């Protein structure tokens, strides 16, 4: 009988490094479970991760101090808002949808006056997420407008919807390409290559010897699933080598680029 020599998922060095980059809690666990990595490297890796966590905590403390000032300002603002509510205008009483109407008017005016420039959202992964949030804000405004029976609001919501659809069709392929480029920069040193496929760059492909392990494929997919869905990728391929004819892939049921969807409820 042949002895089973299949290694545990945490015995793959590249997998450990990859997890330390994209999800350090699991990466740290794998680092110390791996019997092929020396203790010196384990200690060094732990110190680096600890240093990153310390910086993050210090930033949180600074943010908390700033948040206290914000709370004081917010409290004063709430007091003023309460006072304002006592003096509700006649227009707002007659038209309870005035806020939606005003927001629709502002958004349409903004898009009419200035051509949308999505290049400002290509500076980092965080800025790509900001553009996703922007589209979600528009989707939420349109959704609220379509749930009313006000003729003027419905008319304006159609105008905004048409403009947002046009922008999304142009922007989502560019966002997916930018995301792939940022991921490539993070992973190429670990000999993991990333490619885009499909007419509208809807297929993301990871290529590397690390993906001989099925656990690694699953962990990567789970870690990235949310952002991949937000960017409306249709499929993710995991290959051991670029010439592989047989490979693992995950199909994603995501909206088409032109669809207006409120994804962040």
Task: Please provide the count of β strands.
Answer: 4
- Give a quick account of the main beta sheet: strands, pairing sense, barrel closure: 4 strands, mixed
Residue stretches low in confidence (pLDDT < 50, at least 5 long) are: none
First-to-last CA distance: 55 Å
**What's the mean pLDDT score?**
79
Question: Main sheet: which strands, in order across?
Answer: 1-2-3-4
Sketch the topology as an H/E string, one letter per element: HHHHHHHEEHEE
- Percentage of residues in DSSP E strands: 5-15%
Question: How many H/I helical runs?
Answer: 8
Structural class: alpha+beta
> How large, in whole angstroms, is the Cα Rg?
24 Å
Helix content: 55-70%
C-alpha geometry:
elongated
Commentary on this structure:
The longest helix is centred in the first third of the chain and has 47 residues. A four-stranded mixed sheet has the order 1-2-3-4, covered by helices on one side. It has 265 residues and is an alpha+beta fold.
What order do the helices and strands come in, and which of them pair?
Layout: H1 13-22, H2 24-33, H3 39-85, H4 90-94, H5 98-113, H6 125-146, H7 151-187, E1 193-197, E2 203-207, H8 214-230, E3 235-239, E4 248-251
Parallel strand pairs: 2-3
Antiparallel strand pairs: 1-2, 3-4
Helix pairs in contact: 1-2, 2-3, 5-6, 5-7, 6-7
Protein traits:
265 residues, alpha+beta, 8 helices
Q: What's the short version?
A:
This protein has 265 residues and is α+β, with helices and mostly antiparallel strands.
